[in-house]
Write a structure and sequence with these properties.
- There is one protein chain.
- By secondary structure, the protein is an alpha/beta fold.
- It folds into 3 domains: about 200 residues, Rossmann fold (3-Layer(aba) Sandwich), CATH 3.40.50.980; about 200 residues, 3-Layer(aba) Sandwich (Rossmann fold); about 110 residues, 2-Layer Sandwich (GMP Synthetase, Chain A, domain 3).
- The protein contains 19 helices and 24 strands.
- The protein has a 9-stranded mixed β-sheet, sandwiched between helices.
- Strand 5, helix 6 and strand 6 form a beta-alpha-beta unit.
- Helix 2 packs across helix 4 and helix 3 packs across helix 4.
- The longest helix has 21 residues.
Length: about 550
């Protein structure tokens, strides 16, 4: 029988019908991520693989260090398919650690450095994580935090410092690498029987239904996802990518950092995204694909830095919604990226017509991707131009959230298409079908690409003594596309918290700082729908009107 040899409990694997479609008759191969990465490192040993403000590393050194770190992890007793929590900022070290896990057949649990107790304790316990990777950073004591997580995670056995030195009694990656005989480590790696149909990473959903769900990504579909993206954007050994997203985040992992390694190019990573560091990296590394947030574009405009930046070699400026602004500010072609951690990736191409690049999210990167626009709540397909829910399936789209049967029953159509919760419309431009983003069915705020689940934050914020009731909605923002605005009904005579006080309360309760509302509107009652229910669309319209009025008043002043 086709498929995985030793299924993991809680993981939903492809059906036999899907395996016939995508493996026997389609693009999936018997290739694992470890094998693909090792082949690339052997092919281009002397080329720069990863660069950062702290230096650079060649493919040969990346291969050596990941071999030795993988050997050390196996020496610790970690076994194939054990889960490893990643909480490491963007760096060369995080790339080494991820590849080492793939070589040792471990599963990275792709959490963010910004996550705190509410997220990490749940995810570590839910996944049965055996190890926690952290870094030594000035602003937060990740070592102490990891010890707290371990104390309430029965499965947790190991704490490893991946970046920095830390206390002598805690192993760090640099010393573990130095302790290994590379040839012996590689021999052990080569002896592992990896399964291309097995989980290679536990990614996280955007948290559209309370806390983030775990998304299993299989080795052969994930590497196909990366290759399809690289081929779509014509990655090659002269490509240099720089998109200051979290390296462990699916967008960077599937579209930027690891795909470019498969094609022999260079990935630039940085934990510091303040303008001067970003400008210096652009000057030094001369990226050919550059990711830009509106905030960075604004900084470039204000500082006049454009004339100091080498941009002639840039093939495309990647953003989620700022292609027009990117092109206007920097002069290079702006292209949009749309990606779901659950699967589907859409890109515009630098060669696409301006209308497609500016007004759509592009097209799917694989010819095997199937996309439909349906009437929300149904499976009735809508004609081009009409807005509906986008549903999709394909060789790299997942088949279900980890250990989440109830959510999985809601998430798919009867014929296996994933319900995205995003409102889209198909648009025919010069004979090709593109997709335009028209809004969301899901209750989320997309702040700079990071999804904030409103229900999760509302539930915690409601514990504050000054909050009688709270509804959180997205408000438009020129720098981050959206920020969270909280509409609060006071709790009797108790004072409503201001933004700073509410943030401190939420962080103390274990939420990540980026999830905190950045504006509070006190309200006596919520606007209601025709059926008498509180209406978030009306609240979104209200804060949008308020922001537009304030902008006009400030312009007059």
């Amino acid at each position: 029988m086709l498929g995985v040899k030793n299924p993991l409990p809680g993981v939903v694997y492809p059906t036999q019908e899907a395996l016939e479609r995508y493996f026997v008759n389609g693009p999936l191969q018997e290739e694992t991520l470890a094998e693909g990465m090792m082949a690339a490192m052997a092919k281009w040993p002397d080329r720069t693989a990863i660069s950062s403000p702290e230096g650079e590393i060649t493919y040969a050194q990346l291969d050596h260090d990941s071999d030795c770190f993988a050997g050390a992890l196996m020496d610790m007793g970690l076994q194939p398919q054990d889960r490893v929590v990643f909480q490491v900022v963007n760096s060369i070290e995080i790339v080494v650690a991820v590849i080492a896990c793939w070589k040792a057949d471990l599963i990275p649990l792709c959490t963010l450095a910004a996550h705190r107790d509410s997220e990490i304790s749940y995810l570590a316990n839910h996944s049965g994580a055996k190890a926690h990777f952290v870094g030594i950073e000035e602003r937060f004591d990740f070592v102490d935090f990891a010890k707290q997580i371990a104390a309430k995670t029965p499965s947790m056995e190991h704490l490893v410092i991946v970046r920095g030195e830390g206390p002598e009694d805690i192993p760090n990656m640099a010393k573990l690498i130095a302790s290994q005989d590379r040839e012996a480590a590689r021999a052990r790696i080569d002896s592992i029987e990896r399964d291309p149909f097995q989980v290679a990473a536990f990614q996280l959903s955007g948290g559209t239904t309370s806390i983030s769900k775990i998304i299993p990504r299989m080795s052969n579909e994930y590497i196909y996802n990366m290759r399809a993206t690289g081929e779509w954007l014509d990655y090659n050994e002269n490509t240099v990518t720089f998109m200051p997203l979290q390296t462990i985040h699916n967008a960077a992992m599937a579209c930027v950092v690891f795909p470019v390694l498969l094609f022999g190019g260079e990935a630039v990573v940085t934990a510091v995204v303040e303008p001067m560091t970003v400008f210096q990296l652009i000057q030094q590394r001369k990226p050919t694909y550059l990711g830009m947030m509106p905030a960075a574009l604004s900084g470039i405009q204000k500082s006049g830095a454009k004339d100091m930046l080498p941009l002639a070699q840039v093939d495309g400026i990647i953003s989620t919604a700022a292609a027009r602004q990117s092109e206007a500010v920097l002069g290079a072609k702006g292209i949009h990226l749309f990606g779901m951690t659950e699967g589907l990736i859409c890109f515009a191409k630098p060669t696409d017509p301006e209308e497609a690049r500016f007004n759509t999210i592009g097209r799917p990167v694989s010819e095997w991707d199937e996309v439909r626009i349906v009437e929300p709540g149904t499976e009735r397909e809508l004609p081009p131009g009409e807005t509906g829910e986008m549903i999709s399936r394909g060789p790299y789209t997942f088949f279900g959230y980890y250990d989440s049967e109830e959510r999985n029953r809601e998430a798919f159509t009867s014929d296996g298409f994933y319900r995205s919760g995003d409102l889209m419309a198909a648009r025919i431009i010069d004979g090709d079908t593109y997709y335009s983003f028209e809004g969301r069915l899901k209750d989320v705020v997309s702040r700079g690409g990071e999804k904030i689940n409103c229900e999760e934050v509302e539930r915690v914020a409601a514990r504050h003594p000054g909050v009688g009731d709270i509804m959180i909605v997205a408000m438009p923002d020129p720098d981050y596309e959206e920020r969270a605005c909280a509409f609060v009904i006071p709790a009797g005579n108790a004072p409503v918290p201001d933004v700073k006080e509410l943030m401190e309360f939420l962080v103390e309760e274990g939420l990540a700082k980026y999830k905190c509302p950045e504006r509070i509107e006190v309200i006596e009652a919520y606007p209601l729908t025709a059926s008498g229910k509180p209406s978030k669309p009306l609240l979104r319209a209200q804060i949008t009107e308020t922001l537009e009025r304030e902008a006009k008043e400030n312009a007059i002043a």
